[in-house]
Specification:
heterotrimer; A: about 0% strand; B: mainly alpha; two-stranded antiparallel ribbon; 2 strands
Chain lengths: ~100, ~600, ~180
């Protein structure tokens, strides 16, 4: 079975997360998709760490989790702030940077 | 030797450079004049020295210029032979006298304008001298064009006068037309013989080693002379060129630039001699031009225009002599004509300066008001009419002898008739302007010394050359008695006609005009040649310009405009990628990643 | 980059068909749960349900960590992700949904291009994996993971560790700033 299976699994979850990011309309839904992608990355790290007998991967995964938490917190704060101003979290309506 | 020749050529060039690059000096006016006059004076001294102590044989000095595989393609340098030396003296002398004369003639000009005038004068002197000293066709062509440029600049010197500007453009265009033939001919000659160099070409001609079929080539080269020396039909620019200041007319359009065509034919005569049909054409066209211009001079009322047509006519004489295989006669007439025509122009300038008008109908009894001017004008007129013992008599006789000996009957007849007409129209001017009944307006007086001395110098030279000819019998020994008698009789007849019509008033000019009816009206209208030329210009040249303008606006510009429009449209379209939605950008990142993946696979 | 520290041996040793079967069964089960819940996260219309499915996915991931002998990480995952993150998201949904007064409809935009790209990315990675040679057997674990992890954190990765702390403070402040009401 080996490493290949874990990497494939991580890739599949990553692809699903990517799908979620690009197709969800709600801003929070997009953030959920990002969560999935980061999760998949973590699986990858830990799998490589195990199969290469290295603790570096675990450390990396730990850091990733911490940073993800911080990112989610700030991201949601931004979503709430936007919601207060524009009364919507529909990503289709948040296009002020339209060229 | 070489350094003297370089001095002749280089001094005016240095003056030009100095005046062109130092605006303060140029704008000073009088200072610029002094620089220019000093330079041409030095040039004259060097030319005289060279001429009086001539080298035994032709001296040629070359510097390589454009390199080619074996030997240089083109060189620049100096070609010094007796004909060239005489021409150098003529050019520098007349240029010097004209520049001195201009000091007083143009006293009404503002200093910057005067400085500009002398800058152009120095440039012209340099260009003309370079043409004379050219050892090959390319250098001659370069200076040929430079001389044309100076002519344009000096005809249009008073550029705020529309007539002057038009005349300058007309001169440029017309001579350019001839120059097209000139350039083409030179290139064809090179194709046929492989060289531009005179020495090589003349050597080949002497040894009969020239390739056959050069008639077209030499005809094209002759076209350059047609333009520059105002032969029919490219003579139309010379009368209009009188819009320029009179000293300019004297220098450029009488003595030197227009003589460049004749000089070129004379210089390249060994080549022309190898193509007899072209020579014949030259003689015919020359004689015809002489007659045509003389008829037009008879009806002109502007004194400078009369002299201009006279110049065209005399240039026809020179060309006819060259075409009659007598280049020495042509050159002799070139020199004498240069001197007395310059004299006539400068004297006319003095008259215009004193009276304020060019119209001879408004002049009268000027001989008594301007005795010096009148005297020198009379000397010039007698020389032009070919009266013994002045220089013009000998040179004209040489021309007639040459044409007769070449068995060119009709040209000879034309030239003979022209002798009569020349005397007639010139004395018409004399009788109307210098004698007659009209009192001149104002208080005309003789010109100041600065203007008078050049006049006297030229007059003395005219007489001196003539007297020398009479004493040594030079140029006259091959003339049959009857020819001499004929030419003198014709001249006398011409004078008589003028006397009878304009002085004694036995025959009224109007009656004479009626008697010669159609000829008179056609001559007044210049035989419609100007109209034809203008129509051709408008139709062909401007039409071509319009076509090219259309191509430029709609095709060339159009391409650029289309490109820019497409760029804008592409930009507009690409703008839609920026939707402002972060999701779409993530989408873009994913697609980009995919592309990178694929690319990396392909480039394994 | 392997260092000498490894987690102590576990029942999931490489030898013995018994361990392989156990590990494989665990893997396939967890994989099924993970994939199913992930799909549910991105496809469910109701956002609340989406979050719940995410929680399931996160727990399944924790299980995978356990399979990979990273027990500490399993704990961290449950605490922070399944616990903290899910809680925050629920709160955020509540805050942004109530005032609108309607259920957030998750009518996703055109699904097909997104699906295509996702499948393409997956395909690309698979193609890569074909050529790569990845180890099949696990190397033996040496030592406790947690101890090794702790030691690595304060020796080799101490700078990153400290910076992470700074990052957390910054995130905290940022979140506070964004979430405050303007008085």
């Amino acid at each position: 079975m080996g490493l290949r299976a874990y990497v494939l699994l991580a890739a599949a979850v990553f692809a699903i997360g990517l799908f979620g990011v690009t197709t969800r309309r709600n801003a929070v839904g997009i953030l959920l998709g990002i969560e999935l992608m980061l999760n998949a990355v973590n699986i990858n790290f830990v799998a490589f760490a195990r199969y290469n007998a290295s603790v570096a991967g675990i450390v990396f995964a730990l850091f990733t989790i911490a940073i993800t938490v911080a990112e989610i917190a700030v991201g949601l704060a931004i979503v709430i702030a936007i919601f207060r101003v524009r009364r919507t979290v529909d990503a289709d309506h948040l296009d002020l940077l339209k060229g | 030797m070489t350094s003297l020749a370089l001095a002749v050529l280089g001094l005016p060039f240095l003056a030009f450079l100095l005046l062109a690059l130092a605006p303060p000096l140029r704008r000073h006016g009088r200072g610029a004049a002094l620089v220019s006059i000093a330079a041409i004076g030095g040039s004259l001294a060097a030319a005289l020295w060279l001429w009086l102590v001539p080298p035994e044989a032709t001296v040629v000095r070359r510097w390589e210029w454009i390199p080619a595989e074996d030997g240089p393609l083109v060189s620049v340098g100096l070609y010094i032979d007796p004909v060239g030396l005489a021409m150098l003296v003529l050019v520098t002398l007349v240029a010097f006298l004209v520049q001195v004369y201009s000091w007083a003639y143009l006293e009404g000009e503002t200093p910057p304008s005067l400085g500009r005038y002398y800058t152009y004068q120095s440039l012209f002197a340099f260009s003309m001298l370079g043409l004379v000293l050219a050892p090959n066709f390319v250098q001659m062509l370069i200076f040929w064009e430079l001389v044309g440029l100076c002519s344009y600049l000096l005809i249009g010197f008073w550029y705020d006068r529309p007539a002057a500007a038009r005349a300058a453009v007309k001169a440029f265009w017309t001579t350019r037309l001839g120059d097209v033939g000139f350039v083409t001919g030179i290139v064809l000659l090179w194709r046929a013989t492989g060289t531009f160099d005179f020495t090589a070409l003349f050597g080949a001609a002497a040894a009969h080693r020239l390739p056959a079929g050069l008639s077209l080539t030499m005809f094209l080269i002759y076209l350059g002379a047609v333009g520059k020396s105002a032969q029919f039909p490219l003579h139309i620019w010379l009368p209009d060129a009188m819009e320029g200041p009179t000293p300019v007319s004297a220098l450029i359009h009488a003595a030197t630039m227009v003589a460049a065509g004749v000089f070129m034919v004379t210089r390249a005569f060994p080549l022309f001699a190898a193509t007899p049909p072209v020579l014949g054409l030259i003689a015919w066209v020359g004689a015809f031009t002489a007659l045509l211009a003389a008829t037009m001079a008879c009806v002109e009322t502007d004194i400078k225009r009369v002299l201009a047509y006279s110049t065209v006519s005399q240039l026809g004489y020179m060309m006819a002599a060259a075409g009659a295989a007598a280049p020495h006669a042509a050159f002799f007439h070139l020199v004498t004509h240069g001197l007395f025509k310059a004299l006539l122009f400068l004297a006319a300038g003095a008259v215009i300066h004193a009276v304020g008008t060019n119209d001879i109908r408004e002049m009268g009894r000027l001989f008594y008001a301007l005795p010096q001017t009148g005297t020198v004008f009379l000397v010039g007129t007698l020389a032009l009419s070919g009266i013994w013992p002045l220089s013009g008599f000998f040179s004209k006789e040489a021309v007639l002898v040459a044409v007769w000996n070449a068995r060119l009957g009709v040209p000879f007849a034309m030239l003979a008739l022209t002798v009569l007409l020349t005397a007639a129209y010139m004395f018409r001017v004399v009788f109307l302007a210098f004698f007659g009944d009209r009192e001149p307006g104002g208080h005309p007086h003789d010109p100041p010394a600065v203007m008078a001395v050049p006049l006297w110098i030229l007059a003395i030279l005219t007489v001196a050359i003539g007297v020398r000819g009479a004493l040594t019998g030079e140029g006259g020994d091959s003339a049959p008695r009857w020819l001499t008698a004929l030419s003198l009789a014709l001249a006398a007849a011409g004078i008589g006609v003028a006397l009878v019509t304009y002085e004694l008033r036995l025959v009224s000019p109007a009656a004479l005009a009626r008697a010669l009816g159609p000829l008179d009206s056609m001559a007044r209208r210049r035989y419609g040649l100007d109209v034809v030329a203008a129509a051709v210009y408008r139709g062909l040249v401007l039409g071509l310009s319009r076509l090219i303008g259309w191509v430029d606006r709609y095709l060339v510009d159009g391409v650029v405009n289309v490109l820019s429009a497409w760029t804008l449209r592409a930009g507009d379209w690409l703008r839609r990628i920026q939707t402002g939605r972060a999701q779409d950008y993530v989408y873009g990142v994913a697609v980009g990643f995919l592309l990178l993946l694929i690319a990396s696979q392909i480039w394994r | 980059m392997g260092d000498g520290h490894q987690a102590p041996g576990h029942a999931g040793a490489t030898q013995g068909s018994q361990g392989v079967t156990l590990e494989a069964a665990g893997f396939w089960g967890l994989a099924a749960v993970l994939l199913a819940s992930s799909l549910a996260v991105v496809l469910t219309r109701n956002l609340f349900h989406s979050v719940l499915y995410l929680a399931v996915a996160l727990v399944a991931t924790g299980g995978v960590f356990l399979l990979l002998d990273a027990a500490f990480l399993f704990g961290v995952q449950l605490l922070l992700y399944a616990g903290g993150v899910v809680t925050i998201v629920v709160f955020a949904i509540m805050l942004t949904e109530r005032l609108v007064g309607e259920r957030i409809r998750q009518m996703s935009r055109s699904l097909v291009p997104g699906a295509l790209v996702a499948v393409a990315v997956l395909g690309g990675v698979c193609v890569f994996l074909r050529r790569a040679s990845l180890p099949v057997k696990r190397p033996p674990l040496g030592g406790a993971l947690t101890a090794a992890l702790g030691e690595a954190l304060v020796t080799r990765y101490v700078v990153a560790f400290e910076l992470l702390a700074v990052l957390l403070v910054v995130a905290l402040l940022g979140a506070l700033y964004f979430a405050r009401t303007d008085d």
